[in-house]
């Protein structure tokens, strides 16, 4: 296990595209999913855009190497005056898991939400994501909500 002392959490930048693509591919593969090239291109462009209602991206950089990513979105909510924050994607390179990278990325989203005046941050995961849920149980509170989706 490596220390996270030399880890920097920073906004995603254009120079990160190759590393981001590798990490996001790993994330998608973890969830047994894939997307076409057009989605990679549009997602990366949106993450770099300046639309405050679009997704934001941060990366974890350790010793000059991008080792993790997080994507999040601020949106309106019918039960609040303030926006809320949805953390959509969180991924750390398997070589650095268990070192605190995931926690630092979540805490960076918490800080961004605080800065934006969004009091609530939420995310979803699969029930069998045992390793991820061990972290989520320490940094978040499990709710009773169950997700439904439109049939394919």
Instruction: Provide a count of the helices.
Output: 4
Beta percentage is: 15-25%
Helix/strand class: alpha+beta
Shape: globular
Helix content: 25-40%
Mean pLDDT: 94
Strand ordering within the main sheet: 1-2-3-4-5
N to C succession of SSEs? EHHEEEHEH
Cα-based radius of gyration, to the nearest Å: 15 Å
Low-pLDDT residue spans: none
Number of strands: 5
The description of the largest β-sheet is: 5 strands, mixed
In whole angstroms, the N-to-C terminal distance is 41 Å
Walk me through what this model shows:
- This protein has 4 helices and 5 strands; from the N terminus they run βααβββαβα.
- The model has no long low-confidence stretch (mean pLDDT 94).
- The longest helix has 16 residues, at 101-116.
- It is 34% helix and 22% strand.
- The chain is globular, with a radius of gyration of 15 Å.
- The protein starts with 6 loop residues before the first strand and ends in a 13-residue tail after the last helix.
- With 152 residues, it is α+β, with helices and mostly antiparallel strands.
- It has a 5-stranded mixed sheet with strand order 1-2-3-4-5, with helices on both faces.
């Amino acid at each position: 296990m490596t220390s996270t002392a030399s880890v920097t959490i920073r906004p995603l930048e254009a120079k990160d595209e190759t590393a981001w693509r590798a990490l996001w591919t790993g994330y998608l593969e973890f969830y047994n999913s894939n997307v076409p090239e057009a989605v990679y291109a549009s997602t990366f462009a949106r993450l770099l855009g300046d639309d405050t209602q679009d997704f934001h991206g941060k990366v974890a950089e350790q010793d000059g190497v991008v080792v993790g990513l997080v994507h999040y979105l601020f949106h309106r909510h019918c039960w609040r005056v303030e926006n809320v924050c949805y953390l959509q994607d969180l991924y750390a390179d398997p070589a650095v898991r268990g070192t605190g990278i995931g926690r630092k990325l979540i805490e960076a989203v918490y800080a961004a939400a605080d800065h934006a005046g969004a009091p609530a941050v939420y995310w979803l995961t699969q029930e069998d994501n045992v390793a991820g849920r061990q972290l989520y149980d320490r940094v978040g509170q499990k709710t009773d909500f169950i997700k439904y989706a439109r049939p394919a």
